[in-house]
User: Which sequence fits this backbone?
């Protein structure tokens, strides 16, 4: 057993409840350029394979309702390589996106899907470190020596 992870090996899947699995499948495909698997008509679900895990779109049963906005609920957080470009693209598609935040080594925003499920987007940004080859001290600039 790994003491940091306890008994968990990895997150196997995250289930997101939706009203219409086919409409949600199409929305995720369009909004995030993913390739969802087919809809399983027997269990009314669709699996979107991600690296090391999967997002499962599960159609709610009759009488079930998603949590309302403002209700505490679990939500997925997806890491991307260019959060700002995705924010602009989703906004241009008419997707409900929250404000863009850039700070503390992260670029983030929240998206709402067709059923108002919260989805967070994050891009991890390395902090810019000063060039160690050039260092300034008391107004002097030190440059590395170059040997022929």
Assistant:
């Amino acid at each position: 057993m790994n003491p940091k992870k306890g008994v968990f090996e990895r997150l196997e899947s995250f289930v997101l409840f939706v009203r219409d699995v086919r409409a949600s499948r199409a929305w995720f495909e369009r909004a995030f350029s993913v390739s969802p698997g087919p809809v399983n008509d027997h269990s009314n679900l669709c699996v979107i394979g991600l690296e090391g895990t999967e997002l499962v779109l599960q159609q709610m049963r009759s009488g079930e309702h998603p949590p309302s906005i403002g209700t505490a609920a679990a939500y997925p957080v997806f890491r991307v390589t260019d959060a700002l470009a995705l924010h602009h693209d989703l906004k241009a598609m008419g997707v409900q996106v929250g404000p863009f935040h850039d700070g503390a080594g992260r670029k983030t925003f929240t998206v709402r899907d067709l059923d108002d499920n919260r989805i967070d987007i994050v891009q991890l940004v390395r902090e810019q470190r000063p060039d160690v080859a050039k260092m300034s001290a008391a107004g002097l600039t030190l440059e590395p020596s170059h040997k022929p």
